[in-house]
Design a protein that fits this description.
Radius of gyration: 16 Å
CATH topology: Rossmann fold
Number of helices: 7
Low-confidence stretches: none
Strand order of the largest sheet: 1-3-2-4-5-6-7
Number of domains: 1
Mean pLDDT: 95
Shape: globular
Helix content: 25-40%
Largest sheet: 7 strands, mixed
Structural class: alpha/beta
CATH architecture: 3-Layer(aba) Sandwich
Length: 213
Amino acid sequence: MFLFDGPDQARMTILLAHGAGAPMDSPSMTAAAKALGETGFRVARFEFGYMAGRRTGASRVPPPRAEKLNPEYLAAIDALDTRGPLIIGGKSMGGRVASMVADELLAAGRIRGLLCLGYPFHPPAKPEQPRTQHLADLKTPTLIVQGTRDEFGTRDDVATYKLSPLIELLWLEDGDHDLKPRKSISGFSTADHLRTMAEGISSWAERVTGEVG
């Protein structure tokens, strides 16, 4: 099952998976999808099996290791009716899973880019345990939207990691893992950051695909 935002006839589609602990209709994912849809993208959200199972009363099974979800991400792409260029990605763990399958999909001509919202560069408070080895040689054009105070990867943390030159970072000042700033401290609101995110993604996607969203 997918949740859709944006025009059905949009020139580009963005497929997003959720993070480890929150579903596809969490407030942060819903806000991001709506902002992107209003910018002109067709946005599709889906859930991995363990999360979908929680909706049917199944026990709160913890998420499996991220790489175990690769087949489910590939299956979601197969099930999605896409028109025009496809960009894959997700929130936190969802983006990490997408990053693991992106290069094979790019090589097959099935996707044009990778979008990560709040990438989990490392476990909270453990920057010495990076989850970035596969990102060093990534061949897929990638945009990571990251808050500067994200506990999974601050600006200072990320500066120490080796990343592919095809990875671009859009930093949102004082944003947390959900990209939300503290308005009283940063001077920015969540709406400000959503607008900056959507505009930045639109500009990047147009550049890497040659299409207007």
